[in-house]
Write a structure and sequence with these properties.
The protein has 239 residues and is mainly α. It has two domains: 51 residues; 157 residues, no CATH class. Helices cover 66% and strands 0% of the residues. Helix 5 packs antiparallel against helix 6, helix 7 packs antiparallel against helix 9 and helix 8 packs antiparallel against helix 9. The radius of gyration is 20 Å and the shape is globular. It is found in: Cytoplasm. It holds the Pfam family Hemerythrin. GO terms for molecular function: metal ion binding. This is Hemerythrin-like domain-containing protein.
Length: 239
């Protein structure tokens, strides 16, 4: 989407003005379960109404606006659930909306251009989709329940065999967005087609959008979630 300005977001700013500058913030709000009818409310008002730590909201919103995460040192246990909610909703968006949209574009392209190169793209994306699903399932079924248990002072993975930690999560963590670069490269530079019309543009746009959101997703995990969980583990003397 077209971003008209690059504004560093602050609590007193009106959400509607920020969305006009960067429409990608609509997707960010959806990941937070925030109603997009924001009237003239400020960032601070929206955060208070939705019980979201203002620091988390601003850190993530500024990622969408192209700035780095400043620090997560003032976040604590109660903030874990807001971050997990955001990431889980992101997962639903990838698996339920964006990946099916891209797959449909590839299939239509294949219908019009039954050539080995498009079959290769189709195969590549199928394998990539499976890898993404495995990655997100691991987070939903193993990592997030552990993080959530820490924030609620519950025991989880008691035995040595099943013990889990933020460090193990960090070591297991992979950048699933980087492989999309190979696919974009193929479509932009190496596959000549006679009948692709607007399909190739739609496909590439969807790939750029998915890559953009996945990149922010990874930064949130690496720069906000993992430091926060390590901090909680240190407080509890575990990990």
């Amino acid at each position: 989407m077209y971003q008209t300005r690059k504004t560093f977001i602050k609590p007193e700013m009106k959400i509607s003005n920020l969305v006009f500058e960067n429409p990608s913030l609509l997707l960010m709000m959806e990941h937070f379960d925030i109603n997009i009818v924001v009237r003239n409310k400020t960032v601070e008002q929206i955060c208070n109404e939705n019980h979201i730590n203002q620091e988390i909201f601003i850190a993530i919103a500024n990622l969408y606006n192209g700035f780095n995460v400043a620090s997560a040192e003032n976040m604590d246990k109660p903030d874990t659930e807001s971050i997990i909610l955001f990431l889980k909703n992101s997962h639903r968006y990838y698996l339920g909306e964006k990946i099916p949209e891209i797959r449909e574009c590839i299939r239509k392209l294949y219908t019009k251009n039954n050539i080995p190169e498009i079959r290769l793209v189709d195969k590549f994306f199928d394998e990539y989709s499976k890898e993404v699903k495995e990655h997100l399932d691991y987070e939903d079924e193993i990592a997030f329940p552990y993080f959530s248990s820490l924030s609620h002072n519950k025991k989880y993975f008691d035995s040595k065999e099943t013990r889990f930690s933020a460090e193990e999560y960090r070591e297991h963590h992979t950048d699933i967005e980087t492989k999309l670069g190979e696919l974009k490269n193929l479509l932009l530079k190496h596959i000549p087609l006679k009948q692709d019309g607007s399909l190739r543009r739609k496909l590439l746009t969807s790939l750029f959008e998915l890559e953009y959101d996945l990149t922010i997703h990874s930064v949130i995990e690496e720069s906000i979630l993992i430091p926060l969980i390590k901090k909680i583990e240190k407080q509890k003397k575990i990990g």
